[in-house]
Amino acid sequence: QVQPVESGGGLVQAGGSLRLSCGASRSIFSMDWYRQAPGKQRELVAAITAGGSTNYADSVKGRFTISRDNAKKTGYLQMSSLKPEDTGVYYCSVNFGSWGQGTQVTVSS
Q1: pLDDT tens per residue, range 33-73
Q2: Are 47 and 30 in contact (CB under 8 A)?
Q3: CB neighbours of 62 closer than 8 A, spacing ≥ 6?
Q4: I want to staple 107 with a disulfide (CB 3.0 to 4.6 A). Which of 64, 75, 82, 93 is the partner?
């Protein structure tokens, strides 16, 4: 099984935006985005099912949007109104497969 490849992370000021990408080797039916902050457990941030239903952690509702483009075999996590507590390494999982190496997001206050 080929791991997905996350990209798009970086350093951004509070209130800014970033779009993370999750490159897959096959069509994306379901996808999850997780994040892990320093010293904390990995947590589910957003998910999309094969039917297109989405689910978000309460802490990101209204600020993050998960989507996919199967023509490009790529998933996305659009993040807006970023807060310092959004800092962490973000990982994606495609079709209940393994995570990639992650991409670092750092939000400065």
Answers
A1: 999 998 999 999 999 999 999 999 999 999 999 999 989 99
A2: yes
A3: none
A4: 82
